[in-house]
Amino acid sequence: MQPLWRAGLYGAALAAVWVAVAWFYDTTFHLAPLLVAAVVPLGASLAAEPPPFPRRLAAAAIGAAVALAATAALALGGHLAGPSLLPAGGAPAESVAFSLAGAVIGLLLGASRRRGG
Questions:
Q1: Which pLDDT band holds residue 113 (cuts at 50, 70, 90)?
Q2: Domain range spanning residue 64?
Q3: Total of domains in the chain
Q4: Of 29, 50, 1, which is closest to residue 102 (Cα–Cα)?
Q5: Lowest mean pLDDT among 34-38, 56-60, 73-77, 82-86
Q6: C-alpha span between 77 and 99 (Å, rounded)
Q7: Read out DSSP for 51-113?
Q8: Which of 41, 93, 100, 110 is deepest in the core (most CB within 10 A)?
Q9: Tell me, what's the pLDDT at 117?
């Protein structure tokens, strides 16, 4: 249980940095939600004892939830505006898509790391 808790803390800390920086600067941080969502399942998978798949899946869900909570905070505060890398939708839609993609990428990279090493 401790690796999952610690990985969630890493994700929350990274999300707090993203929110704090985005709150004070008018810059769009396109990859921040992807990194926040991916760090939790990756952190859980890097534990000394390999976690079972349901725990890695829970870590991916926690990572996505943390990134989506940061997205909501920035969008509600009016600090998630700017261009989008996606062809449709604005910065909030991009942030949601990148949050979900980051959780999936973190889950897959964590699973492949455990199989290979």
A1: low
A2: 2-116
A3: 1
A4: 29
A5: 82-86
A6: 19
A7: PPHHHHHHHHHHHHHHHHHHHHHHHHTT---S--SSSSS-HHHHHHHHHHHHHHHHHHHHHHH
A8: 41
A9: 45
